[in-house]
Every structure is written in C-alpha cells, then in structure tokens.
Amino acid sequence: MHRLRCITCGKEYSPEAGRYLCDDCDSIHGTLEVIYPLDEMKIVKKFDSRKGIFQFGDLIPAKSHTVMDDYVGGTPLCRFVDKFGYKDISIKYDGTGISASYKDRASIIAINRAIEEGNDCIFCASTGNAASSLALLSANTNLRTVIFVPSTIPKGKLAQLMVAGAEIFPVEASYDEVFDLSIEIGLSNAWYTRNSAVNPYLLEGKKTGAYEICIQYDYDPPDYVFVGVGDGTIISSLCKGFKEFYILGLIKKIPKVIGVQAQGASTLMKVFEGGKLIKESVSTIADSISVGNPRDVIKACKYLSDNGGRIISVSDDEIIAAISLMAAETGIFSEPAGAVTLSGLLKSDLPRKAKVCLLVTGNGLKDTSNIKVKSFRTFTIDEVYSYFGKE
Ligand SMILES: Cc1ncc(COP(=O)(O)O)c(C=O)c1O
Ligand SMILES: [Zn+2]
C-alpha cells in the first residue's frame, strides 16, 4: 500500500527488496520517506494505548512474523499536575520495553522487513541502544545479527549486547566513523541494514510514539513534545506521526516538536538554524546523541520546519542535573539522552499554561556512569536501631 519517495528530489520508488536510497542523490540527500495514500485510508479510533505497534495495521509497512512483535510499543504516559512550573505535563516513558529504549520501535520493523524480504543477516551501527534493541529482539529469530558500536559504549548497553548472543564489534572509533564502516561491510555483503536514515522503514516504527501520545491524550494532544536528537530520525518520526494522524482526521491540532541536543553535539541544530550542511567532531556525556554527522538531517530539517518546531541545546551539567530532578520529582529514571528533554523544558520560554510532553527515550539503568552518588556512611544494625530511638 505504501511507496517510497526521495526526500530531496521527490523521485518515487516501489518498495522492492534492497531499496534503501535514491539513485539520483547522495546518501545524505537521497534518504527515502515512506508515503501512504492517506486521503483514501479510513482509520477509526479503535486503538488501545497498551497494545503494541502492529495494531496500526496499514500505517505500518511490515507484517508481524516474530513472537516479540506484540511487546513493542504500548509504553506508559505518566501525566502530572504542577511539575517543573507547568500545570499539565506528561512523560512518555519508553524505558519500559524489551530493551528499555525507544529503538525497539524501529528494530522490530527492520527485523520483520528483513524476514519478509528473505534476508538471513541483519546489521547495524549504533551508539548502543539501536544495537542492544536489535540484538535482543532478533535473538529469537533465525537472523544472523552483526553489530558495530563505538568501544566507549556504556556498560549497561554493552551488557545487553553481550547476553543477546549477536556478533559484536566494539570499534575504537566515533559513532560517525563506525556508521561508515558498517555500511561498507554490511552492504557489500548484501546484509539487511538497520542503520538510521539509510533504512526508511525505521521511522515508521518510531512514529508510533506520536500515535500513542495522541491516543493517551484522548486525541487532544499536548501543545509541545520534547525529544532528544542525534541522527534526527526520532524527531522526524514524531513530526510525521502527528501529521499522519492529523491528515487522517484523528486529531485537530499538531503538537510543536522541540528537539534537544547536547551543547557539545548540536550539529543538527546548527544545520537547522544555519541552513548549511556540516559535519563535526562532537563530545557529550549523552552518548546516544553524540552525533556529528547526522544521517537523517535533511528529513529532520524538512519535517521540523513543516511542523513549526525548533531545536535547542543544553550543557552536560544541565543534563546530569535533570536526570536526578526527573527521578526525584516523578519517579522516572532516564538515561542522559532522555533527560535532555527536561533540561530543554527548563531552559525554554514556553507559557506556563502550555500542555507539555517529554519523551524519555531510554532507561536510566543503561548508563549510570554520570550519576553522582552522594558520599554516604555505613551503619551497624545497632546504630540504625539507636538512630530511630530503639535500644
Ligand atoms: C535514548 C535515545 N534518545 C534519543 C536518541 C536520538 O535519536 P535519533 O538518533 O533518531 O535522533 C537516541 C539514538 O540513539 C537514543 O538512543
Ligand atoms: Zn533523489
């Protein structure tokens, strides 16, 4: 039912196996978007926010082939009153899934497409979350899974990878370099790729977060949604998901999407603001969004201008502070790339009456290295009794 269209020149392609990029454009400009005949599609509001992403039927360009398909998506949206200076604020928490990050939504689509297209091997380059999600979700399939990550990957993410039984290459290089390496090896071997931007279908899994936010707000979505930005796929997917629900007549307004980057890795923000394509070396404690050559930059800029949103940046200190503040105030423990959303909100100048949703894309247990554990003394059992006045 869907077709593929080049994000830059608009050339359309039918979705045949092995089609990743436009023939006429380079790998950054020639990423493809998945398009549907939305005007002809009749979708009724019968969705359940606790069900997985395959409930969205024709809006999902893959059939379900694996046991895990029903367990991706359907994550909680926790709604708070009077938090962080806002009357109505929610956290959409994607740290609860199979691999505890938003990446499950994309990996499961890639796995099912790989199976459908008759592949026996799938690969990806990742800062860590896409990799651990792919490795865990493909563990129960017959797919050979090959993973390339920077060797600086946080221990929690590495542990997930190690136990999942994939072939893992922690490479002494940046994510941007590992990405290029993986494409060279993977595509020359004709393996199926789960690399951001190159595979247009990933975004179709990720957009379901936007669908679920609409459903969880009873089809009256918030004014603003904040999200961490690296390659730019998640932010693009949110803009696309909200727009599709709007065109389908399921919502009456589209939330503004606000991307948040780390100051030391704000390449996509610079391109969005300056209009000039750049690549740079980057550094931030938020490893998942430490990206200096964002692969989905063209789509992200196009979709974000259409959405009317923007991108802001925050310091590493602000991110570290936000992790603790969020956990202490709401009970949600986020990894740095998710906590940027709170840092971004605190830095923004939104009206206090705005309805705001923060998308927390990864569980805090994945990377605890930046958490400042307060120095503490230990107690004997007798000391604890005496502390509470019992002899
Ligand atoms: C937890 C988390 N948040 C945000 C992002 C950013 O997503 P994208 O690279 O699509 O911009 C990632 C990507 O790895 C991630 O793992
Ligand atoms: Zn093109």
Plain-language structure description:
The protein is globular, with a radius of gyration of 21 Å. It starts with a strand and ends with a helix. The protein contains twelve helices and 13 strands. With 391 residues, it is an alpha/beta fold. The strands form three sheets. Strands 4-5-13-10-11-12 form a six-stranded mixed β-sheet, sandwiched between helices. A four-stranded parallel β-sheet has the order 8-7-6-9, with helices on both faces. The chain has a domain at 78-98 and 202-366: Rossmann fold (3-Layer(aba) Sandwich). The protein has helices at 104-116, 129-138, 155-163, 175-188, 202-206, 208-216, 233-247, 267-274, 297-307, 316-330, 336-347, 381-387, and strands spanning 3-6, 12-13, 32-35, 77-83, 86-93, 121-125, 144-150, 167-171, 192-193, 224-228, 256-262, 310-314, 355-360. The model has no long low-confidence stretch (mean pLDDT 96). Helices cover 33% and strands 17% of the residues. Bound molecules: pyridoxal-5'-phosphate and zinc ion. Pyridoxal-5'-phosphate (PLP) is lined by residues 101-103, 127, 129-130, 196, 228-235, 288-289, 335, 337-338, 361-362.
> Which cofactor or ligand species appear?
pyridoxal-5'-phosphate, zinc ion
* Approximate strand percentage: 15-25%
DSSP strand count: 13
Form type:
globular
CATH fold call of the domain at 78-98 and 202-366: Rossmann fold
H-E order: EEEEEHEHEHEHEHHEHEHHEHHEH
Q: What CATH architecture label of the domain at 78-98 and 202-366 applies?
A: 3-Layer(aba) Sandwich
Number of helices: 12
Alpha-carbon distance between the two ends: 74 Å
Q: Regarding quaternary structure, how should these chains be classified?
A: single chain
